[in-house]
């Protein structure tokens, strides 16, 4: 039986759906069978991030209501064996599904896949209750901003109080900028960990590649040679239980800044 992981956040706009898509790809690239489930009924976006929006026929609500079979609603990513999407309904709302139905669906998926990643909608209402049902552990995504961290702390408390998981959720810190930390304008990794008190499983740098890759429907995890692509692959290894060192983003930022400066100087001299 596979493992189901809910990927959540207290605040919208922190990159949760991007993490869900890219982590799913990184896990599939290591030979796992993976399904990413869009639980944001009424506001689906995971299909767009994955570049699969034109191939959707049925959705999660269709499956639960018995309108179609599960295999009919699963969208296979033709670029990668073992990666599937179960899209959310776009014309329904979150009350179309209850936690008991969601748990039954997740358990069915766990029979077929190594990893079931549930992309949870932002907030603490019905969508959150649906998303956490049937999952084995959680990953909380936040950015190093006090408003996002405060909301993340609330979500962590709700996950732990639910008794759904056997361990505390893990943390992914997104859009981290070492240069701002050095200037005292952004919370450090240590600051965030001290506030949230959960283990860090991923550190993602601020990257313009995320915007361009999302717009093209080609997630950055397909490009492991980029800094942020490599970061996603390291997260995938940690999810699988491997001990992998964190990237030194200070060194990488410094190196690329120097290279950019040198290239700029070269153009001036020319």
What is the topology?
Elements: E1 3-8, H1 16-29, E2 34-38, H2 46-50, H3 60-64, H4 70-73, E3 75-76, E4 83-86, H5 99-110, E5 115-119, H6 126-132, E6 137-142, H7 146-162, E7 170-176, H8 178-182, H9 189-196, E8 200-205, H10 208-216, H11 227-239, H12 249-269
Parallel strand pairs: 1-5, 1-6, 2-4, 2-5, 6-7, 7-8
Antiparallel strand pairs: 3-4
Description:
The chain contains twelve helices and eight strands. Residues 252-270 have low confidence and may be disordered. It is globular. The chain is 44% helix and 15% strand. An eight-stranded mixed beta sheet has the order 3-4-2-5-1-6-7-8, sandwiched between helices. The longest helix is centred in the C-terminal third of the chain and has 21 residues, at 249-269. With 270 residues, the chain is α/β, with parallel strands linked by helices.
